Amino acid sequence: MPLALLALAIGAFGIGTTEFVIMGLLPDVAADFQVSIPTAGFLVTGYALGVVLGAPLMTFLGTRVTRKSMLMVLMGLFIVGNVVSALAPVFGVMLAGRVIASLAHGAFFGIGSVVAADLVAPAKKAGAIAMMFTGLTVANVVGVPLGTFVGQNFGWRLTFLVVAALGVLGLLGVAKLIPEQPKPEGVRIRHELAAFRNVQVLLAMAMTVLGFGGVFAAITYITPMMTETAGYATSSVTWLLVLFGLGMVGGNLLGGKFADRRLMPMLYVSLGALATVLALFTLTAHNKIAAAITIVLIGGLGFATVPPLQKRVLDQAAGAPTLASAVNIGAFNLGNALSAWLGGIVIAAGLGYTAPNWVGAALAASALLLALLSGVLERRTVSPGRLVAGHSPEPAAAAVPGESVPTASAPISR
């Protein structure tokens, strides 16, 4: 794999750390600013909404520069946002810093996916995307626990300064290792938007929302579930999340490996298994060992869908993948927000702390149904490598100067 993928992975590590570490530091932040825990929770919600809105916005703004230049701008935003958060004198300023940092999230992973895919041969594109996302998964194993430890023992502000330093390292890596590409010519925005007329792109994004939402329906409420139902001590939840992170790392790498061989079958298996495991979690959550094993499986199966879904969007967006790729990253966060809301509803209805697992199973099963529908539609083709999907192929979009087509081989041959 090219060394340039390391720069993308470092950036992903920093972004993953700043996204999730706040969950372990909410009580400290709330106490420092003298706000309630629910109010401090806006730091999580604000970040997620920033990702959803920032992905298309920052991608639009980046249409006039090279992808390398835009990645550097995004890492700059990430650094500024974390420094603002670390030095914030009042809660509102910290919230603004979180939003600034989140604006870089979706576009970085979206543009980074396109860059990673362009760095390798067609048969290794999903693996390259997975290598970039490894930074995000490792953040949950190393960055988040360490960041939480530093914040709880030396002050949460130091955690965000350290994360900003990671951003500087990522910025230097992008500047040094990512190869220069010529600036695309022509009106790219129109062609980027054209990708959303492809029903397969929309189906892939819906699978992202529902499939990843299934994971976070359970994980969002993992603390009360494990302490009240499984009988774990509160201090043990951090290590359970480390297990979840290890599952994410393994699933991400396996998903990238097998998606390069058989993308759609990989989605069928991972989504079907994820729905089954989430349903079983309502039972295994009552036993400590079984619960720990299930958490690893949820992390693994959930992230086994990430490289194939991201590559699916790149494949189907044809010659204009950048915006679609970035919006799909926003779809992951939309899934997080949707599932957390639905999980909260069933808990509030008195159905217990394991009830969100049924919500997750239903969401994952819905994603599987969409994957099966996508596979059926894909077989209705008029020519190799191009699917009808309810409209005719658009050669104009594929011929945009300076745009690379993520898959040189026909995606329907999997």
UniProtKB/TrEMBL annotation:
Residues 4-382 form the Major facilitator superfamily (MFS) profile domain. Keywords: Cell membrane, Membrane, Transmembrane, Transmembrane helix. Residues 393-414 are annotated as: Disordered. The keyword Repeat does not apply. Signal peptide: none annotated. This is MFS transporter. It is found in: Cell membrane. Its main location: membrane. The chain crosses the membrane at residues 42-61, 73-94, 100-121, 128-150, 156-178, 199-223, 229-254, 266-283, 289-309, 330-352, 358-377. The keyword Lipoprotein does not apply. It comes from the Bacteria. It is a multi-pass membrane protein.
